[in-house]
Amino acid sequence: VKMMHRHHWLAWLLSALFLYGLATRSPVSNSNSDPELTLVVSQAILEQGTIYLDAYQDRLALSRDFAGYRATNNILEQNGHYLNYFPVGPSLLLVPFVAAARSLDLDMTQYADNDATQNVLSGLTVVAVFGLLFVLARCFVDERASLVLALVFMLGTSFISTLGTALWSHNLSVPIF
To answer: What gap in Å lies between CA 125 and CA 175, rounded to an integer?
Structure first.
């Protein structure tokens, strides 16, 4: 990809900020569903050195208490330990981000902190995908057309509505793979 002109960088940056704001400020938030425990597992890795959620039985204050998650099978008991039902991969990849959040005294076992962190991270995945779409389009057309195509693709497909709604297990898969 060739160097972009300064005004195209500014247009890309403004577009990225618009998409980030759209994703993070959306009134629709499904962070109290399957992605909800992803960041808690990341915190367990940092604090406990394990993917088990045993230490959070009394601290978990998300949309349900620990027993509520067990009742809906979001937390599974295996060999006397409690595990998140959903894939551990996103939790492993998000450890550095949760470490940064913890340095700001955010606690992923608390609803407000968990939800805010998920919104930031899902917004960043939207911007990453937008950047990748721009770079891909730039391989075939000029800068202005690439920007328009990337914006149309982000706003006209399920990318913004899916990636921006919550930090699903596949949010990180989209820009990585």
So the answer is: 7
Residue 45 and residue 154: Cα distance in Å, rounded? 33
CA–centroid distance for 2 within its chain: 30
Q: What is the pTM of this model?
A: 0.88
CB atoms near residue 40 (< 10 Å): 24
Contact 41, 95 (CB under 8 A): no
What would the two tokens of residue 85 be? 């039902």
Which residues are bridge partners to 92 per DSSP?
none
Q: Do 56 and 83 contact (CB within 8 A), yes or no? A: no
Which pLDDT tens digit goes with each residue over 37-56?
999 999 999 999 999 999 99
Quote the CA–CA distance of 136 and 120 in Å, as a whole number. Answer: 24
